[in-house]
Amino acid sequence: MTTSSCPFVLLGLLSSLFCLAAHAGSVSLTNTIGDTLVTSQGTALDSLFKFELGTFGNSFTPLATNTDLWQANWKPFAQANEGAGTFNSAFGAFSVGDTFVADTATTGHSSLGLLDMFGNTPSFTQNDVAYLWVFDAQSLTSTREWALLTSSAWRFPDPNSIDPNAGSFSLTSGSTPVLGNFDPTFTTTPDVTSRLQTASVVPEPGSVLLVAIAGLLARFRRPHRQQA
């Protein structure tokens, strides 16, 4: 085995693990090795970038005009990054996903236990719309590079599903960018590959203060545990 083939083997193994875990309920998203992943300036996405799979639930609709509110409403499920070996910037490939642990018949959580910006472990409900958020950093304290994609086919499955493909998503022609650009047929020969480009996001005046206020309000709304 050559050194250059190692990233392909690693990502293949990760995809296989996600498929096996799907019998216990899982959600995952992958792209095609060799896809072009670039910033708004056209430079390749490097090790600073992360690919996060999650949802905003049903109470918030992310738009290119309300980016200052995304982090406060984001519910992370799983993340791919170079340090974890789930993103390979040299080959333009990522694989993000995790086991979907059932809480009820229709609600579950990620076994990774990723926390939202308020320190809470989010739960996910069957049919929640899934999003892929690509970013160099999530906090809008300075100019960032972001992309956000979704699809009508990206829905959180029944957490008790035994269908191995119920929560398996991929970047395809049906993937729609909320922010950034996506070309599903950037190349067609010798293989079909996509081009994903992030957009430059500039913080709006007062956005940092609004996020801080949202954090305080969320903490006040938490139910207090009764002492025995």
Overview of the structural elements:
The chain has 228 residues and is of the alpha+beta class. The strands form three sheets. Strands 1, 5, 6, 7, 8 and 11 form a six-stranded mixed β-sheet that branches. Strands 3, 4, 9, 10, 12 and 15 form a six-stranded antiparallel β-sheet that branches. The radius of gyration is 18 Å and the shape is globular. The protein starts with 5 loop residues before the first helix and ends in a 7-residue tail after the last helix. It contains three helices and 15 strands. Mean pLDDT is 85; it is low at 8-23. It is 15% helix and 35% strand.
On the 0-100 scale, what is the average pLDDT? 85
Q: What gap, in angstroms, lies between the N and C termini?
A: 60 Å
Radius of gyration: 18 Å
| pLDDT < 50 stretches | 8-23
Derived from helix and strand composition plus strand pairing, the structural class reads alpha+beta
Reported for the largest beta sheet, the result is:
6 strands, mixed
Oligomer: single chain
Total number of β-strand segments? 15
